[in-house]
Amino acid sequence: MTHADLVGEGADRAAPRAGPEPNRAGRRIRTRLVLTVTSVVAITALALSMFAYIAVSQSLRTEVVDRAVEQARFNVGVLATERLPEAVRPGDIETSGLADDFQRRDVRVYVDLGTGPGDDFVSGLDVVNAPEAVSAELRALVAAGNLGAERIAIDGDPHLIVAARRAPAGPDFYFLTDISDTENALAQLRLVLLGASLLLVLLGAVAGWRGGRLAGSLADTVAELTAARARERRFVADVSHELRTPVTSLVHEASELAAQLDALPTGTRRVVELLDGDVRRLRDLVEELLELSRLDATETPDATIGDAAPESWDVDVARFLGAVVARRMPAATVRAPADCTVRTDRRRLERMVTNLVDNAATHAAGSAVTVSAWLEGPRLHIEVADRGPGVPDAQLESIFDRFTKADTSRGSGGTGLGLAIVREHARVLGASVTARNREAGGLAVELRLPARAVTDL
Questions:
Q1: How many other CB atoms are there within 10 angstroms of residue 245's CB atom?
Q2: What is the CATH number of the domain that holds 342?
């Protein structure tokens, strides 16, 4: 065959795409997996760290504030009320013994008597002028007779001020609490959580890298198998295409010899008969290999030289099955509902039913064959059943594999590709095909076309 012949018949050739380059596929998988695992671990660790820090910090700070507020209430509501007269003058804090109580209990307090800054009481030299240090909002809150708290910084150190007024006329008490220890503890907690997060991210990256290596190796293996499968299909398509023309010539030449069979010597007739049959089977094999190659090409979304996309035609089921059976196996019985029209790809359906009938004729020759059709909901069922020897149960699924002949007792004819072609056409239509052994003997192969391929009109 010349190059021009190949170009002219290129539409009959399936051209599976080569699979992805193995190493490149593995690198992509490894990179994506490492990035994905690291990102997930980083986001999870950050979220958990933030949640833990917020929960702990709120708990600690709330505990500090509650303790300071409770202490302030006791100091103002109990001690100050018992020790101080209703109208407090400068010096009453010391003479009443309240100052000694504050000193013994290490209470840092600024008492605003309201008579002037020089008359106010301060429990220690390091206590700032609280009314000037706090906000106007807190002073207004205390003036209204309420208790309030505020965080301030004194010489760079965080403090908590709890302010309250002794009812009804005062004075105003400002209790200072150094919360540096709490803030330092929270700072250390932030560092610990940050370190733990970084460690988790590192472990996640290592785990992602190790998993990526495994996934990358698997991706490389899959890519190699895909490429090998594509090469195998290309090889089958090329060989079948190359054989098509010489096999056609052989069939023609064998036919010419067979036409002159009576003129040949007796010893030669049998040889010519065998040659004619074998050449025709070879032609059938080549044609079926080419058909499978075209069907294989439909597995790739961008295949341009594969089998044509499914077409929709209105098909009268009873007339359609009657015509196929009359052409392929007139002795078979057809059972189909009258006036049943469906819409499907007539060419593919004819190919599938023809192969099923031919399979029964080849492997169950001489037995009764029944071709049945019925509608079950949105599905069309077509069954070809024979009374032949059947198939071992363990091989019922494998009979749809290529070049598979389940049992020699079902005959020696056929190429082993007929049922494989049925399954491939069913795949294109979104249909399914199954086989089962009949109770009284024989094999039944059932084709089911789903709603998206068949519509009852």
A1: 14
A2: 3.30.565.10
